[in-house]
Amino acid sequence: YAKKPPLGVAIATGAGASFYIDLENFAEGKDAAVTPLGDILGNGFLEKVTHDYKCNLAVLNKLGIAPEAVEDDTMLAAYLLDSSRSSYSAPLLALQTLGQEIAGEIPEGWTENQYRTAERADFVFQLAPMLRKKIQEDGLEEIYTKIELPLVPLLYEMETAGLKVDVDALKGFSDFVSTELETLREKIYAIAGREFNIGSPKQVGEVLQELNIAGGKKTATGQTSTSKDILTELAEKYEIAQLIIDYRELDKLKATYADALPKLIDDDGRIHGNLNQTVAVTGRLSSTDPNLQNIPIRSELGQQIRRAFIPEKGFKLISADYSQLELRLLAHITRDERMLDAFQKGEDIHAQTAVLVFGAKDEKDLKEKRRLAKIVNFAIAYAVEAYGLSQRVGISRSEAKKVIEDYYETYKGVRKFMDETPEVARKQGFVTSIYGRRRYFPSINDRNFNLRSRAEREAINLPIQGTASDIVKIAMLKVDEAIRRENLQTRMIMQVHDELLFESPAAEVEKAMAIIKQAMETAVELDVPLTVEIGAGENWMTTK
Q: What H or E segment, with its residue span, contains residue 230?
C-alpha cells in the first residue's frame, strides 16, 4: 500500500455525509486538492478518526500529507475489545455493530472503488463513538490512548526505515543449508531403503510403517501421523525420526528465510516488512514479509540468519533484550515470596529452582540441573502440562508430573495463581493483563476436555504474555521519546519478542546504548527489577 499514491480520499463529516475527492480527475489539478487536504488532515486542532491508522499514514505520506490529532482507529479499538476476531474490516464491523450492510448497487456516476471508499469513511465515522464508549466501559481507555494509538506512528517509522540485508551472507547460508539437506536426505534414504518425498507427511508415514516403527496415531484422513510430537517420541529409539525432524526444520528455514528474504529486498537494499498490531491474541506485535518473530533464537542456524541483517556503512546495530521478562512477571503477578525474593536480590532463579526443586547438591550437579530448571521455569510460565514438559526435558510423563508437583510445592504462590486464574476466566469469561488488556475465553466451560484445557492454559498465560506485550510497547514509546529528546540519529528498526533492534551511527553508539537501557529498565515500575541485556555489532548476530 505504500508504493503508490492514492487515487482519491474519502472524508465523512457526519452520519451519512461522506465525500470522495477524486485526486486523479480533480478539475483544477491534483495539487489543488492535495494542498487543502493536507491543511485539514494536518490540523492539530481538528480531531480525526480513521480505520487502519498505520496504512493511512503510509498512503497519505505518498501525497506529502502527515495527519495530526488522530483520536481513534476503529480497527485498533475493535481489536482491543476482542483480540480473537479473524477480521477487523470496517464493513464487517459496521454490519456487526451498526447493523448496516454495504450497498448492493453502486449509484450512477461512481466507480465501485470510489463508492466503497466513501462508504467505509461513513462506517468509520459512525463506528468510532460506539467503539470508544465500549473501550471506556471495559476499562481499556488507558491502554488504547497511552499505548496502542501512540505506537502507530512509531511502527510506521520503523517499517519505513526497514532493515538492511547482506545478500552475500544469505546466499552463503542458502548454499550451506542446501549441502546439509543433501547430507540428511542421503542418510534418510539409506535407512529407509528407498527414495521418497521427505516433505510429504503421507510418504513419511508410509516409510515409517514399512520400517514397523510408526506411532499409533492417525490423522483425520486416516494416514499415519508424523507430527513433531510423534516423531520426537520415536526419535528416542529410531535415528530416522530425528533425521526427519532435522530435515523439516532446515527445509523450513531455507524456504522461509534464505530463499524468501532476497525477494523482499527493496531498491534501497533494505527490507520493509509489516509490523502488525491486530493479529496476536495476547497483544504481542507480529511481523510479516518477513516474519522475523519465528527465527530460532538459540540455534546456530537461527544465528546465521541474523548475521545477514546489517547496518548502513558507518553505523552499527544495537540489540536491547529484556532478561527473563516472563519469569519476572510471573513473580510480580503471582506474588510468590520465594520468586520475588530471588529477583529482588538479583539471584539466579534457575539455580534456585535447580536446588529447591531438583535437589542439586554440588557445582557439577548444579550445572546439569540448572539446564533442566531453566526449561521447567519457562514451561511453567507458559502453563505447560506434564506431557508437554516430558517432551521438552526428555523424561517420562509420570516424572514430569512429579517435577510439576515439586515445583508447585516450592513456589506456592505460583500454584495459587495457576489454580485461581482459570476460575476467574470461568466466572467472568475473560482475564486481563496488569494494564487491563483483555482476552475472552468462550471455550473455558466447554464440555470437550481438550478445548476446555486449552482455554485454561491460555487463560493462565494471558496475564503474563499480555503484560509482557504491554511493557515492551511502553518501552518502545519511552525509548523513542528519549532518543528524540537527546536529538540522536539512532533509530528503532525492529521489535522481536522482548528485544528491540536499533541502527545507530558508530560515533553515538555508547550514548545511545546507555539511553536505551535506562529507558527500558525504568519503563514501568514492578515489584521486581527489570534488567536489559544490550550490545552492539556489525550485524544482528554479533550484537549478542
A: helix 228-235
Calculate the CA 72 to chain-centre distance.
23
Residue 228 CB contacts under 8 Å (≥ 6 apart), including other chains? 245, 248
Phi and psi at residue 288, to the nearest 5°: -135, 155
Give the separation between CA 484 and CA 338, rounded to whole angstroms: 40
Quick one: which of 427, 531, 533, 522 has its CA closest to 481? 522
pLDDT in tens, 171-202: 988 999 999 999 999 999 999 999 999 999 88
For the chain, give the longest Cα–Cα distance.
Answer: 84
**CATH class in words for 165-270:** mainly alpha
State the pLDDT at residue 188.
Answer: 96
Q: Which three cell numbers stand for residue 80?
A: 482491543
DSSP 46: S
Q: Enter the C-alpha cell of residue 216.
A: 499409533
Cα 435 to Cα 467: distance, rounded to the nearest angstrom: 7
What CA dihedral angle connects 102, 104, 109 and 115, to 10 degrees? 20
What architecture (CATH level 2) is domain 327-463? Orthogonal Bundle (1.10)
Q: CA–CA distance from 27 to each of 19, 21, 112, 175 (Å)?
A: 16, 11, 21, 57
CA 19 to CA 110: how far, in whole Å? 12
CATH 3.40.1440.10 fits 8-161, yes or no: no
Average pLDDT over residues 427-436: 97
- Write the CB contacts of 506 (distance below 8 Å, at least 6 apart in sequence): 314, 315, 316
Reported as a single tens digit per residue, the pLDDT across 236-282 is: 889 999 999 999 989 988 888 888 999 999 999 999 999 999 999 99
The answer to whether the beta carbons of residues 213 and 241 sit under 8 Å apart is yes
Q: Could you state, in order of their start, the residue ranges of all structural domains in the chain?
A: 8-161, 165-270, 286-325+469-543, 327-463
Per-residue model confidence (pLDDT) at position 544: 85
Q: Same fold for the domain at 165-270 and the one at 327-463? A: no
Is 314:506 a contact under the CB 8 Å cutoff? yes
Paired with 440 in beta bridges are 430
Under 8 Å between Cβ of 115 and 58: no
> What separation in angstroms does the CA of 147 have from each of 66, 142, 154, 367, 372?
20, 7, 11, 41, 37
State which amino acid sits at residue 378. Answer: F
Q: Which fold has domain 286-325+469-543?
A: Alpha-Beta Plaits (3.30.70)
Record the pTM. 0.92
Q: Three cell numbers at 419?
A: 489454580
Question: Please, are residues 7 and 22 in contact by the beta-carbon 8 Å criterion?
Answer: yes
Local structure of 139: helix, strand or coil: coil
Extended beta strands in 199-308, E state: 270-271, 274-276, 286-288
